[in-house]
Design a protein that fits this description.
By secondary structure, the chain is mainly alpha-helical. It contains 3 helices and no strands.
């Protein structure tokens, strides 16, 4: 769960630092394509961080409902 949060947080900060633009969807788009750091392994580490956090919550709580929620969100993140 913590790993997911850190991936989300620092992935976004890295993109702004290297690619320019604003944070998230609230600012202007990146000025440069970022292909280094975590972006060398995943196209969107912020979404990957969300997914990792959802599955971490499911594992931490041992909740079938939390697991179902995490699995149900996978198609949405894949489409985005």
């Amino acid at each position: 769960m913590i790993g997911g949060y850190l991936l989300y947080r620092f992935g976004g900060e890295y993109r702004v630092k290297v690619g320019g633009g604003g944070p998230g969807l609230s600012g202007p788009p990146p000025e440069n394509l970022v292909t280094t750091g975590i972006y060398a392994y995943t196209r969107n580490p912020m979404y990957s961080g969300h997914v990792l956090s959802l599955f971490g919550t499911a594992i931490l709580t041992s909740s079938p409902l939390a697991l179902a929620f995490a699995v149900a969100n996978l198609p949405w993140f894949d489409e985005r």
